[in-house]
Amino acid sequence: MSFNDGAQLDPSQVEDRRGGGMGRGTKIGGGIGGGIVVLLLVLLGVNPNVLGDLTGGGSQPPAVESGGPGAGGIQECQTGADADKRLDCRITGTVNSLNAFWPDYLAQYNVQYSRPGTVIFDTATNTGCGPATTAVGPFYCPADVKAYFDPGFFDELVTRFGSSGGPLAQEYVVAHEFGHHVQNILGTLDQAQQDPQGPQSGAVRVELQADCFAGLWVRHATTQTDASGRPFLDPLTEQDLQDALSAASAVGDDRIQQAATGRVSPESWTHGSSEQRQKWFYQGYTTGDINKCDTFGVATP
């Protein structure tokens, strides 16, 4: 969705760690042919326990700290017009909208929402879940209650995984990671660790629920307003919706495995199929009801 040009953004909700001068990180696993390793790297929402392995057997890459040459970039994200022009500003605006939506929505269920941290980085950074490189892609770390985004991933979402490049495809990624934060609040996130893989696993159900939560936000996104009462986002279009569904499909386990190895192995799924990811995103969008996102209460998610 496009942003309302006059909407006022709050860049203080995002921490910018870019600009360490280290260059792009090396992807572990030898590229797309790395099979299951690459699957873990590129899917949204990485298991925090494997982050050390993803950066080279637990080695500690230098962290790109806030205050480097790139630290002033986010401060330039002031309006919705900026969000329509720049990806980092679009991430910032989406974070603002999500932080406006979830407190009031969850309050209906007597659940208190606390804002997660949001970090934009490149190359490498340290997290509460261990060191991470750009290879990991977007993820949420419950240990430090922060969502991490490397803007370079959004190019790969299109060029490597075949998603459309529309704004809601990108906003969906941010909303999905915030969905994990909501799960952390509700107490469902740890089911991914207890049952980590397989088509009916807790891990798959956790990821599909986060997709549903992303769709739920989309349903209500155009009613979220900035501090002056101006909506952050313009009305949803059919193309916007197709962009989001394209992104959900692009990161399905079956699609990634087929591209990586030429075969599909449901027993190793951690996020669900393309069809499932689209289905649960659409469920959240069409119902706007968090009770309809109970991926744990159905026999087959």
TrEMBL record:
It is found in: Membrane. Pfam families: Zn_peptidase. SUPFAM superfamilies: Metalloproteases ('zincins'), catalytic domain. GO terms for cellular component: membrane. It is a single-pass membrane protein. Keywords: Membrane, Transmembrane, Transmembrane helix. Residues 1-25 are annotated as: Disordered. InterPro entries: Uncharacterised_pept_Zn_put (IPR007343). This is Neutral zinc metallopeptidase. The chain crosses the membrane at residues 28-46.
